[in-house]
Amino acid sequence: MKTLTSNLRLFWQGTLLSYVALFTWLRPITYTASKIVSPLMQMLFFTFLGTFATGPENAHFYVIGNAVQIAALSGIYGVVLSIGGERWSGTLVYLFGTPANRMTMFFGRAFMHIIDGAIGVVVAFTWGVLLFKLDLTQTNLPALVLTIAVTTLSTCALGLLMGCLSLLTANVMFVNNTVYFMLLIFSGANIDLNLLPSWMQAFSNILPLTRGITSARALIAGAGMQEILPLLAQELGIGLIYGLLGYFLFKWVEVSAKRRGTLETI
Amino acid sequence: MKFKNIFIHWRAVLIVAEVTIKHQMIDGFILFTIIVQPILVATLALFMLKDTAQNAAMFVVVGSGLTGLWSSLLFISGNSINVERWQGTLETLVGMPTPFEVVVFGKNLANVIQSLLSMTGAYLLASIFFGYSLYMDQPLLFVISLFLSVFAFVSFGLTIAPIFVMYREVQQWQNAMEFPVYILAGFLFPILLLPGWTTPISYLLPPYWAAVALHGTSTANAPIQQTLFAWGMMLVFSMIDLFIASRLFKVMLHKARVDAVLDVQ
Q: What are the tens digits of pLDDT across the range B77-123?
């Protein structure tokens, strides 16, 4: 019981402190710029680009795709920096020096970003309704909420894996940015996946977000919970695989760095 | 800030530009901004726009190259003074005999020139991986447009950099400034798609006139009058930017020497 309490405390404190310390969001203006205005601008750009390419009647295809893709803002940037930031701040040595439960410590880094990411997607959908007259009257809202939650979770799991990779390289922002922009291409947020070559479709299928975006589009078109549950189960499964891969890599990085004395080097 | 210094100290400008390029070519963030991101944007745009026009691929090459130029200007040139502060070299640079504006001009020149790689990368992507045969309507006018665009972007960068140093609340919006200019400057779609009230804002942006000139000479076969007008606007905005930059540098150097707060993070 004592161990459980201790792990829960560690989980919560690690979660909260890494989130606050990472973004220094002590002023609301910083949060507004990064998490509300910036996603809106991205959504506007790709929606206008999409309507230029395929006509204004398809605007909602891009609005929905980019609204769900906003999950990657927290899932990739937030989570990767939460883990990679430990090295920059010089706290990685202390972190690996503690006897704390590694699984609690590792998954705790993503927790706040799951919540934050899901809120970001809701804000993006709100922009879609207000600016692009996105019609949610036919939408099963509880199913959409579940889709947002599962998609954000799986995207954060990819972020955990990428965060561990960022412990192996000095170019954390390179990893972050590349993955984020690749998701814009391969997740189907902006391109109908059927138009992609088969190898790109295969790659899309092993990424998070792909099924989440498909589910969201189906739900807004009037589909029910039953129709999207298989997609969400697959999305969750993909997230689980990325999360576990990330955890094992995290453990390996720790053991390897301790053995070779390279904890603070690249 | 005296701009004649840039001509008097032209050797320093070139040396600063050379050292800046050498320094930045090993920085992952900068390589991403000037090469990888424009290539990914070009990939996306090629899939999305491939059926929209006969020479759509060239339009995408130029447009995605412009996104690279703007992102580079915003994140690299915009931070060209701040980077020195973070490294602890800002006070030394301000205090040395070579005028500070010469150093910043050299850095911005390097940033803008190296970000032309973004257009090259997009060109190679479209021609090699997508197999498009790319052609340019008015190559000579395009080269002149590119030269003037570089000048306009460098001048704009000289305005942004001191603002980011002195007004940190503005810099907090840096991430949120990337896509609005992609939109308002019409890099990858015409601004006619946007609501009418945004058009005057577009006209006030030097990147918009760069896009008009570069798209017009590369794919739109624009009449010479339109291109000349865009060139004229780039020159006018460059002069305005240089004037504003001269005032901003004066204020910034005053802070450095009188208030002694330049290195305060």
A: 888 888 888 888 888 888 888 888 888 889 888 888 888 888 888 88
Q: What is the pTM of this model?
A: 0.88
| Token code pair at residue A160 | 């955990």
pLDDT, one tens digit per residue, over A136-167 is: 999 999 999 999 999 999 999 999 888 888 77
- The token pair that represents A12 in the structure block: 């919560």
Residue A62: domain span: 2-260
Q: Exposed, middle or buried by CB within 10 Å (0-12, 13-18, 19+), for B185?
A: buried
Asked if A173 and B32 come within 8 Å (Cβ–Cβ), the reply is yes
ipTM attached to this prediction: 0.88
Query: What is the residue range of B200's domain?
Result: 4-259
For residue A153, being part of any structural domain is answered with: yes
Give the pLDDT confidence score for residue A21 in this predicted structure: 67
Cβ contact, residue pair B36, A181, below 8 Å: yes
CB contact under 8 A, A173 and B29: yes
Name the domain count of chain A. 1
Position B197 in a domain: yes
Question: In chain B, which residue's Cα lies nearest the Cα of A177?
Answer: B32
Structural domains of chain B, count: 1
Residue A261 identity (one-letter amino acid): G
